[in-house]
Amino acid sequence: MSQFTDDKIEHIEEDVDKIKKKPNMYISYIGPRGVSQLFKEVVNNSIDEFINPNSPGNKIEIIIDKEDNSVYVSDNGRGIPPEYMALTCTRLQAGSKFTREFSGKTAGENGRLCRVV
Fold first, then answer.
1. Taking the CA atoms of the chain, what radius of gyration do you get in angstroms?
2. Is residue 70 part of a domain?
3. Position 111 in a domain
């Protein structure tokens, strides 16, 4: 039986640092295609709030700002409670889609960003 050996086994503690080092492990593309993918994920999250019967969400707003080359997406759904914002925006696999009853009837399964530049 052969034994696994490598010059260096590395562990990166912080999730944000993991994403910065190897973004393709978490999104399929980087650059313009990556921005497009993230935009779709953000819109899917807003659609999830719109179609979820437990959400008051009934409005999705998308603003494209050509001057600063950014896109803003907002909805009037439930949102992330302020006390969980840091956790859900800085830790991988943090969210409520793992246990919610409505899971599986959604537009997408990834998290939400407020601004994509």
1. 17
2. yes
3. no
Asked if residue 56 lies in contact with residue 77, where contact means CB atoms within 8 angstroms, the answer is: yes
Taking the C-alpha atoms of residue 3 and residue 86, their distance in angstroms, rounded to an integer, is: 40
Give 21-67 as a DSSP string. Answer: H-GGGTSS--THHHHHHHHHHHHHHHHHHHH-TT-----EEEEEETT
Closest to 72 measured CA to CA, from 38, 104, 27: 38
Give percent of the chain above pLDDT 70. Answer: 78
Supply the DSSP symbol for 19.
H
pLDDT band at residue 102, thresholds of 50, 70 and 90? Answer: low
Number of domains observed in the structure of the chain: 1
State if pTM tops 0.90: no
Structural domain including 64 reads 15-104
Looking only at the bridges linking them, the beta strands covering 60-65 and 70-75 are antiparallel
Task: Quote the CA–CA distance of 60 and 40 in Å, as a whole number.
Answer: 13
